[in-house]
């Protein structure tokens, strides 16, 4: 820029001319200054240009900008020539005169802030005022020329200050607008994340993928250096995802975390109890703890370490974490319930099949045995035990009576039972004696079960003419032969339960001689071990009492009486085993 | 509604992933798979070209975070390029420019992997 050549003020005209040329120059400089500082919204650039321009104008080597950031609170925003350490220093400034002035004239006793400037070597103060409001103060060191400012210079500096104030204010406003805009963007991003992950959470039924989605969302949203997600698994807390320094928290520490019910910064945790949670978490690099709540109960935690951006966790962050955690747990819970429902349905279906198999195997009609009256019943428990009974007529006029209890429940038990029935029916026509047959049945069962299932089994060949029952008891509950005087025999001869190991010792045969008025009672442990609501077994003593009390009745009446007595005992408690009984009354 | 595709190329031994469409909670696993398969075959120089990426959510951003450490431990990097202003805004909002190199142009990012070559 060309400097106007000043001619010596030889006359009044020349002096007026020089003045107008200087004023033209000042106007041009003001215009350029204004153009430059308004061309940017970057505060550092604007402030730097302001300082340099004025320092050049007044020929000072030092300048500083002090800006207001709250009511009456100012801080040093930029320094040139002054010690850099001043930057960021807070200065309390009360009422500032609105024009430029030299600080020497001010009374430090009336204006305490003057002391600060004076101590730092500021001699000239230039307030930045907009609409009667002081938004800052420019301060400058002594002029190199030591000359006092002329009124004209003061006016010029005021113009520069006014233009500066407007530019600073504009940059402030726009920066603030951008900040608010960004905050808004962040909120929108958070909401859309919650909306979208919520939708996806509920679409996923696989807990592992749900946890992974939660993990990814947290990683992307917070960029945490360290994190850990734990979820309640039954009574314990289980860590489902983590990146931490050191060993994962266990036992007491996890349990203590489970008692935190509001989001909290680790630094704010009040330590009580034996474990210093604050120290432990800090050691792991964790900064905040956000509980995952379901129906007012802590179901897990999200623990995050410092963000890689070094930003603090805001209230909004904590709220976002609570929301996403709670969304996740609802979906996880739904997935769990859904899986449970499916499994239950599968189990029910399987039990239905088992029940069908079992019913199909039990004789639908009992044959008439001359001189005997027989009743039999199988009451399936909910789980379907593997109870079995059968009556077969032999060509020689005898009858095979059998009762058995297969270990296990449901379909596997029902299938083994079918296997047993088929084996018996195939072997019986061989006309072997019962001991031999039992040995063979056992060997076949052993081959079929592989030794991990077994059957308690009792069977006998009933000769109606002689009223004798030749029997083998393979580990089954001893049947009763009740006599009319109330005494009884237990049919206990036989050997090992079926299916455990191949027959080494032959099964022993027993023979029971029946008389008119006697009652033969066969039953499974579903009767003797029927549980009351207080976990008390029905027991053989009660069974014997019930039998004695009912023995004058018909076979069906005896059976009904025992069943009723069992029901009175169990009081509706759910039974885990079938209840099976056969009653033969000898006429 | 959300369509997301990943294209794969190789330029000067650098693996380019081209993202197209919506990278959100639903589609994030696709990107996870892509990174996993690169890592499995020991390819750690990765440039993600976002030219056709129309949306990215926190879960999508999380995928980058989930792999960056492994990639850098293997002396590689994930660099991002060609973002639309809208997509860049999200990256910027969540502080990604602090941790990732983001370039206007794919070639710039590729060249960055070979500081002495050019």
Tell me what you see in this structure:
Chain A is α+β, with helices and mostly antiparallel strands and 587 residues long. Chain A has helices at residues 12-38, 43-58, 113-120, 151-203, 207-222, 251-257, 277-283, 315-361, 410-427, 434-449, 525-528, 539-550, 555-570; strands at residues 63-70, 73-80, 90-92, 101-102, 124-130, 133-140, 227-233, 236-243, 264-265, 288-294, 297-304, 372-379, 385-393, 399-409, 455-463, 468-474, 480-482, 488-490, 494-495, 510-513, 519-523, 579-586. In chain A, the strands form four sheets. In chain A, strands 3-2-1-6-5-4 form a six-stranded antiparallel sheet, sandwiched between helices. In chain A, strands 13, 14, 15, 16, 19 and 20 form a six-stranded mixed sheet that branches. A five-stranded antiparallel sheet of chain A has the order 8-7-11-10-9, sandwiched between helices. In chain A, β1 and β2 (73-80) form a beta hairpin. The longest helix of chain A is centred in the N-terminal third of the chain and has 53 residues, at 151-203. The model of chain A has no long low-confidence stretch (mean pLDDT 87). With 118 residues, chain B is of the alpha/beta class. Chain B has a single domain (4-112), classed as 2-Layer Sandwich (Transcription Regulator spoIIAA), CATH 3.30.750. Chain B has four helices and five strands; from the N terminus they run ββαβαβαβα. Chain B has helices at residues 28-40, 58-73, 85-93, 106-112; strands at residues 4-11, 14-23, 45-56, 77-81, 102-103. In chain B, α1 packs parallel to α2. Chain B is globular. Chain B starts with a strand and ends in a 6-residue tail after the last helix. The mean pLDDT of chain B is 91.
């Amino acid at each position: 820029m060309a400097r106007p050549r000043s001619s010596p003020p030889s006359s009044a005209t020349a002096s007026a001319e020089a003045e107008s040329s200087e004023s033209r120059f000042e106007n041009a400089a003001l215009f350029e200054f204004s153009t430059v500082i308004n061309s940017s919204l970057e505060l550092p650039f604007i402030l730097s240009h302001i300082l340099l321009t004025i320092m050049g104008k007044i020929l000072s080597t030092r300048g500083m900008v002090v800006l207001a950031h709250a009511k009456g609170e100012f801080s040093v925003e930029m320094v040139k020539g002054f010690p850099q350490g001043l930057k960021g220093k807070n200065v309390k400034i009360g009422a500032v005169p609105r024009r430029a002035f030299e600080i020497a004239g001010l009374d430090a006793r009336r204006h305490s802030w003057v002391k600060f400037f004076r101590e730092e070597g500021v001699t000239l103060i230039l307030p930045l005022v907009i609409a009667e409001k002081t938004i800052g103060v420019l301060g400058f060191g002594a002029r190199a020329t030591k000359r006092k400012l002329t009124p004209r210079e003061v006016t010029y500096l005021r113009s520069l200050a006014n233009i500066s104030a407007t530019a600073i204010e504009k940059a402030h406003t726009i920066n603030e607008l951008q900040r608010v805009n960004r905050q808004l963007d962040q909120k929108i991003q958070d909401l859309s994340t919650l909306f979208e992950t919520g939708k996806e959470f509920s679409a996923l039924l696989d807990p592992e993928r749900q946890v992974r989605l939660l993990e990814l969302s947290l990683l992307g949203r917070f960029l945490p250096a360290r994190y850990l997600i734990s979820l309640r698994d039954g009574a314990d807390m289980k860590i489902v995802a983590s990146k931490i320094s050191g060993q994962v928290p266990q036992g007491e520490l996890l349990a203590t975390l489970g008692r935190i019910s509001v989001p909290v910064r680790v630094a704010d945790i009040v330590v009580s109890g034996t474990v210093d949670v604050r120290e432990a978490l800090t050691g792991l690099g964790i900064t905040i703890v956000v509980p995952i709540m379901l129906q007012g109960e802590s179901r897990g935690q999200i623990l995050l370490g410092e963000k890689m951006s070094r930003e603090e966790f805001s209230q909004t962050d904590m709220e976002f974490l609570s929301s996403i955690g709670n969304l996740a747990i609802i979906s996880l819970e739904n997935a769990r319930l859904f899986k449970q429902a499916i499994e239950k349905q599968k189990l029910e279906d399987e039990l239905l099949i088992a029940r069908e198999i079992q019913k199909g195997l039990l004789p639908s009609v009992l044959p008439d045995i001359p001189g005997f009256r027989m009743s039999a019943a199988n009451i399936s428990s909910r789980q379907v035990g593997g109870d079995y009974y059968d009556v077969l007529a032999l060509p020689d006029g005898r009858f095979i009576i059998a009762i058995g209890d297969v270990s296990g429940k449901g379909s596997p038990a029902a299938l083994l039972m079918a296997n047993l029935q088929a084996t018996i029916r195939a072997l019986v026509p061989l006309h072997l004696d019962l001991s031999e047959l039992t040995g063979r049945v056992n060997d076949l069962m052993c081959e079929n079960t592989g030794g991990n299932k077994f059957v308690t089994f009792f069977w006998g060949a009933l000769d109606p003419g002689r009223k004798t029952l030749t029997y083998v008891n393979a580990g089954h509950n001893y049947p009763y032969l009740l006599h009319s005087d109330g005494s009884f025999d237990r049919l206990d001869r036989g050997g090992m339960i079926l299916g455990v190991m191949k027959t080494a010792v032959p099964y022993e045969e027993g023979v029971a001689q029946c008389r008119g008025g006697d009652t033969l009672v066969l039953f499974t442990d579903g009767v003797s071990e029927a549980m009351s609501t207080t976990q008390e077994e029905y027991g053989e003593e009660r069974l014997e009492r019930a039998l004695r009390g009912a023995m004058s009745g018909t076979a069906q009446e005896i059976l009904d009486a025992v069943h009723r007595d069992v029901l009175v005992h169990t009081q509706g408690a759910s039974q885990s085993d079938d209840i099976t009984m056969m009653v033969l009354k000898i006429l | 509604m959300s369509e997301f595709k990943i294209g794969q190329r190789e330029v000067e031994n650098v693996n380019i992933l081209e993202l197209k469409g919506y990278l959100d909670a639903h589609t994030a696993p696709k990107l996870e798979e892509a990174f996993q398969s690169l890592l499995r075959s020991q390819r750690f120089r990765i440039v993600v070209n976002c030219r056709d990426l129309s949306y990215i959510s926190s879960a999508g951003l999380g995928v980058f975070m989930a792999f960056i450490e492994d990639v850098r431990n293997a002396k590689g990097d994930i660099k991002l390029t060609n973002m639309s202003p809208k997509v860049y805004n999200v990256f910027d909002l969540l502080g990604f420019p602090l941790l990732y190199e983001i370039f206007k142009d794919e070639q710039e990012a590729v060249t960055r992997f070979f500081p002495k070559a050019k």
